Amino acid sequence: MFLNGEIYYSAVIPIGGDYVSHDIAVGLQASPEEAERVKLEGGCAVERACAEDEAFEYRRLGTDEVRQLPRKILAHIIEPRMEDIFERVKQEIMKSGCMGLLPAGVVMTGGGSLLPDVEELASRLIGLPARIGYPRGVSGMTDAVDSPIYATSVGLVQYTARRIDAREENRSGGPLTGAFGRLRRFLGIGD
Predict the structure, then answer these.
(1) Is the CATH number 3.30.420.40 carried by domain 2-132?
(2) N or C, which end of the chain is more exposed by having fewer CB within 10 Å?
């Protein structure tokens, strides 16, 4: 969590989108790769948001047979795991004492944040506004990283580069010229 532009509290919740994919693999008796594909192409975070006539196709493990099921079944597998994740996030926010100090709410990153209706579910369960975070302030390879999947990694690289750059400028009285300076320029940070 950030307060006044600085990291105030950090925690690790040991479950994420890979657990959603695992649940799908078990529920559908599909391979992990097929479960991930199905999650990305047909998944939804809220079962009631799926229309009755919507369907998805998948292959069961060990067969080439293509099966078709209502999308509501897939959402029925996904929603409880997403609820578990968001309840754990809320517990960490409560533990930090920051619940009333986060007017901007929560920012979701990673592949699970791409599920339709995930913002509504997160906001309802956590009790704060929720939005999807995309990498910002990147130049050069923007198409390659313009996804919430890369937001955390890009943000950590940017944060580290800025901190190292500031430290080195204070020491030397000038801009960073070494490896981190080249990395910063490559990513278009601080130019």
Answers:
(1) yes
(2) C
Contact 190, 184 (CB under 8 A): yes
- Please state whether the predicted TM-score (pTM) of the whole model is above 0.85: no
Per-residue pLDDT tens for 113-158?
999 999 999 999 999 999 998 887 776 666 777 888 888 787 788 7
Q: How far does Cα 40 stand from its chain's mean position?
A: 13
Relative to beta strand 6-7, strand 2-3 is antiparallel
The string over 158-178, giving b where at least 16 C-beta atoms fall within 10 Å of a residue's C-beta and e elsewhere, is: beebeebbeebeeeeeeebee
C-alpha 149/C-alpha 23 separation (Å) is: 20
Q: Please, which pLDDT band fits residue 178 given cuts at 50, 70 and 90? A: low
Q: List every span in the chain annotated with CATH 3.30.420.40.
A: 2-132
Kindly calculate the radius of gyration of the chain based on its CA atoms and give it in whole angstroms: 20
Half-sphere exposure for 23 (CA within 13 Å, toward CB): 19
Give every CB contact of residue 108 below 8 A, 6+ residues apart in sequence.
118, 119, 122, 130, 131, 132, 133, 148
pLDDT score for 126: 97
